[in-house]
Recover the amino acids of this structure.
């Protein structure tokens, strides 16, 4: 049974870089159809898609965050990572990683079928 | 790219039906049949309930159903049960390899 687990610092200072890793267990990140995504939820607010990556290295990003976001993948460790630069208090949120289906064979989709439990990252000095 | 609009809360008694709306634009909900719905119990991992507007993943009860008309998608929970009390979020493809989530709806079982 495939599971995802987020990890990383729970506290980041303003203007610094937020770094998180998602580790996949019970399955392989080298799944031809799936992308691997990051989603966040600020306190008291809704979900926001950050971006997604395929094991080939192909990435898609939310235009509103694109300039600050880097998503990378390490297939040897079955992990993918998020870096968000120049953080402010507005980046305080629970960050989730999820498996993201965009295209299966020639059929289009856009949904996240497996999620981690999330990790709270607070931006504060 | 604005968040899709959902009612802040809906409620119903056990056994009743509730419907959650998710309103977007012709650039997202209205333009594609790629709307999904997620159930989120705080502190737990969100769970996919509906994908591609109306399809249910294996293991999701058939009490949950999805539909779409124009720029508005809907999730209906029939035969409401206490364990259905949770936050629900819609999500839609918005073109150019981007997506957008809804504002979220709290479902309360009275």
């Amino acid at each position: 049974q495939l599971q995802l687990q987020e990890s990383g610092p729970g506290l980041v200072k303003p203007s610094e870089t937020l770094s998180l890793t998602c580790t996949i267990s019970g399955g392989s990140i080298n799944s031809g159809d799936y992308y691997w995504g990051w989603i966040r939820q600020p306190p008291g607010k809704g979900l926001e898609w950050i971006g997604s990556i395929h094991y080939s290295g192909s990435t898609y990003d939310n235009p509103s965050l694109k300039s600050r976001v880097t998503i990378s993948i390490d297939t040897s460790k079955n992990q993918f990572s998020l870096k968000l630069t120049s953080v402010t208090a507005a980046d305080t949120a629970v960050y989730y990683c999820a498996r993201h289906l965009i295209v299966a064979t020639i059929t289009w989709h856009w949904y996240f079928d497996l999620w981690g439990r999330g990790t709270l990252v607070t931006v504060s000095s | 790219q604005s968040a899709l609009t959902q009612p802040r809360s809906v409620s119903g008694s056990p056994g009743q039906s509730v419907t959650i709306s998710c309103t977007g634009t012709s650039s997202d909900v209205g333009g594609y049949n790629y709307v999904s719905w997620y159930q989120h119990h705080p502190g737990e991992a969100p769970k996919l309930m509906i994908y591609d507007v109306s399809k249910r993943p294996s293991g999701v009860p058939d009490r949950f159903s999805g539909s779409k008309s124009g720029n508005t998608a809907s999730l209906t929970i029939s035969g409401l049960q206490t364990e259905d009390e949770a936050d629900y979020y819609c999500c839609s493809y918005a073109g150019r390899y981007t997506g957008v989530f809804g504002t979220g709806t709290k479902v309360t079982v009275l």
